[in-house]
């Protein structure tokens, strides 16, 4: 199928020397930048220009030597059913992973790598060695061959008992979703602009503060002028500012969307998905179905207009890099039929709609309102003496909080049927989380004395990608569900990964 | 398994995790908990004394009493909660899962099915060593939120529990 022989020890792409050099340079600068600062400011050392040139030259030569040695001593190959990586010249290191332990092989490509036509390959294993198994300057051909090899290895092994070889051959890659520039526009527009706006404000404030420190006098003058200008201005100006601010937020969201999801493609082959996307940083991620612990999807007021959902595959990941990993495996701009397709791929026939919705108890509303409404209002009470306007503000705040909490509890429910559970939540946007019950790792039952008085309880279902919470439901239902979940996990012969 | 249906809104007769059947922790563990509170008290009190004696100006007496009162209140509260909450703590090992319960104000039970345990560890702290107590830590793939620690076990009890649970892991592999 491919001309590349995986069994011979291979080095990284020669073009990658540039990349390794740059990476080492970056690492070195990061580690020693305080030293540089000291050297630069103690200019008596650098009085002599010659010294500067010589030290730069020595530095570059040493770094180049390191790069070449690193490159020469870094190779990898497949022996039998193990992938082996050897690296290091001072301290030699050999890493080996059995092929069947490899969960997925992902690639990333930043701008320099795109120019050099090489990729970063990350091998994800069930254990923790995964982080070490990174190859920064791999030729694309090799990485494709390796991905191919691992995928076929996996699927043939899995299908060996059930299907014939012909059917395995037939497993071609199918494109499920391909985002066009118009789609990106829709996704960008329907992002959460409030969040984007807050990021911009925070950034702007910081910038303003720094600028103020530098140009103290001018800043004072301008800010005085600005305040005067503002106090004389009318509503039209304020409206203009709001619109301007909104436009900046939208532009910012659009930019982020394009950078992250440019030419987004979602493929399916046999029991795996593959995602390809990005403009400056390209990513190529493989998601085996069985590694998906939880499927989350979300829609908001703007997304609803376009009928799109933002979808996240929550995978089993080891400890620290959990958040980082999850950001990588999302699919924005799914239409209803995409969502249904993915759900049926991952969970089979959807019977959850037959199951009744079990809503959170109204007491949850009181709890949330207390938390978001009353406590902040009471904390702000010292201001009430100063001006009657604070009373008005507190009242508006309490009402707004009540509205918000009402939205939360209206959306908070769950459904359970056979081996599926789906919870619904959100306030302004609407989110769903669905998982198979045999993916459960642990269950927790929680009941505060306030809940006990009203015969209520909360449940936490933990899986290898996170926790699903079911707050404030009837104690009896909580207990039954608890027992049912344990029972289901315990009798299930299916592996959680 | 596939044709098994049991809607949870209907009462089923699944085995229940009965709080009464849990085994309480070793009484000696209460000493460990008290010792921890004592350590926190010593740190807080030490901090206050250091602050008062090292401050440049004389600290107003009212302020000292206020802080000292707050510290005493926190310590008394933790001591009461610890004492009353201790009988709530306990573990239950069934054929197919292991559970731990605790909590006076918020009662919590966590259960881990035996076929989801990754590995089991027996730990012993400094205080535990003096009192011959160990804790058993059960790791799952769910990360820190679903790892289960059962403290306050006598050494042989902990060793027996680890042996049992480790045996179950190899069964499921």
UniProtKB/TrEMBL annotation, chain A:
InterPro entries: UCP026631 (IPR014529), YdbS-like_PH (IPR005182). Pfam families: bPH_2 (PF03703). Keywords: Membrane, Transmembrane, Transmembrane helix. The chain crosses the membrane at residues 16-39, 51-72, 235-259, 368-385, 391-409. It comes from the Bacteria. The keyword Membrane applies. The keyword Transmembrane helix applies. Residues 72-149, 275-316, 414-485 form the YdbS-like PH domain. This is Putative membrane protein. It comes from Tangfeifania diversioriginum.
Automatic annotation (TrEMBL), chain B:
It comes from Tangfeifania diversioriginum. Pfam families: bPH_2. It comes from the Bacteria. Residues 90-164 form the YdbS-like PH domain. This is YdbS-like PH domain-containing protein. The chain crosses the membrane at residues 29-51, 63-86. Keywords: Membrane, Transmembrane, Transmembrane helix. The keyword Membrane applies.
């Amino acid at each position: 199928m491919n001309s590349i022989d995986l069994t011979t020890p291979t080095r990284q792409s020669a073009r990658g020397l540039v990349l390794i050099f740059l990476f080492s340079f970056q690492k070195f600068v990061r580690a020693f930048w305080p030293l540089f600062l000291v050297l630069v400011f103690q200019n008596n050392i650098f009085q002599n220009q010659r010294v500067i040139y010589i030290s730069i030259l020595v530095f570059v030569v040493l770094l180049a030597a390191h790069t070449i040695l690193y490159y020469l001593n870094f190779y990898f190959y497949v022996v039998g059913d193990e992938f082996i990586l050897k690296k290091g010249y001072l301290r030699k290191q050999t890493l080996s992973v059995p092929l069947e332990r490899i969960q997925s092989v992902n690639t990333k490509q930043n701008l320099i790598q795109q120019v050099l036509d090489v990729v970063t390959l990350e091998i994800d294993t069930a254990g923790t060695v995964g982080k070490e198994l990174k190859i920064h300057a791999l030729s694309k051909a090799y990485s494709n061959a390796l991905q191919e090899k691992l995928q076929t290895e996996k699927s043939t092994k899995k299908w060996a008992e059930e299907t014939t070889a012909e059917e395995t051959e037939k497993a071609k890659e199918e494109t499920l979703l391909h985002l066009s520039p118009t789609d990106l526009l829709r996704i960008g527009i329907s992002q959460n602009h409030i969040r984007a706006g807050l990021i911009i404000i925070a950034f702007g404030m910081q910038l303003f503060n720094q600028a103020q420190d530098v140009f103290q006098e001018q800043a004072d003058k301008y800010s005085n002028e600005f305040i005067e200008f503002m106090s004389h201005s009318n509503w039209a100006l304020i409206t203009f500012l709001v619109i301007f601010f909104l436009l900046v937020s939208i532009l910012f969201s659009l930019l982020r969307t394009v950078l992250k999801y440019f030419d987004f493609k979602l493929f399916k082959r046999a029991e795996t998905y593959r995602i390809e996307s990005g403009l400056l940083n390209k990513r190529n991620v493989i998601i085996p179905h069985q590694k998906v612990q939880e499927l989350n999807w979300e829609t908001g007021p703007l997304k609803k207009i376009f009928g799109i959902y933002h979808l996240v595959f929550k995978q089993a990941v080891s400890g620290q890099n959990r958040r980082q990993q999850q950001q990588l495996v999302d699919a924005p701009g799914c239409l209803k039929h995409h969502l249904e397709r993915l759900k049926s791929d991952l969970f089979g026939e959807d019977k959850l709609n037959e199951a009744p919705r079990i809503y959170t108890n109204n007491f949850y509303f009181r709890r949330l309102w207390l938390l978001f409404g009353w406590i902040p209002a009471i904390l702000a009470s010292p201001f009430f003496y100063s001006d009657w306007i604070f009373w008005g503000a507190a009242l508006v705040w309490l009402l707004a909080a009540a509205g918000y909490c009402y939205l939360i509890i209206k959306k908070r429910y769950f459904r359970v049927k056979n081996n599926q559970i789906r919870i619904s939540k959100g306030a302004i946007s609407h989110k769903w989380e669905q998982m198979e019950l045999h993916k459960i790792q642990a269950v927790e039952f929680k009941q505060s004395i306030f809940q006990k008085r009203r015969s209520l309880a909360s449940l936490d279902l933990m899986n290898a990608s996170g926790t699903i919470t079911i707050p404030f439901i009837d104690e009896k239902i909580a207990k039954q569900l608890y027992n049912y979940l344990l029972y289901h996990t315990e009798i299930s012969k299916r592996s959680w990964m | 398994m596939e044709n098994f249906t049991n809607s949870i809104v209907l009462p089923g007769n699944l085995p229940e995790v009965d709080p009464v059947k849990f085994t309480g922790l070793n009484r000696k563990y209460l000493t460990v908990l008290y010792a921890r509170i004592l350590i926190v008290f010593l740190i807080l009190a030490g901090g206050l004394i250091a602050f008062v004696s090292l401050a440049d100006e004389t600290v107003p007496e009212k302020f000292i009493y206020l802080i000292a009162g707050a510290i005493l209140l926190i310590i008394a509260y933790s001591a009461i909660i610890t004492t009353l909450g201790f009988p709530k703590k306990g573990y239950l090992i069934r054929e197919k899962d292991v559970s731990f319960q605790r909590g006076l104000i918020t009662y919590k039970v966590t259960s881990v099915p035996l076929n989801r345990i990754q590995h089991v560890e027996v730990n012993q702290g400094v205080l535990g060593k003096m009192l011959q107590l160990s804790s058993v830590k059960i790791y799952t793939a769910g990360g820190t939120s679903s790892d289960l620690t059962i403290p306050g076990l006598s050494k042989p009890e902990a060793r027996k529990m680890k042996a049992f649970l480790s045996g179950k892991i190899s069964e499921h592999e």
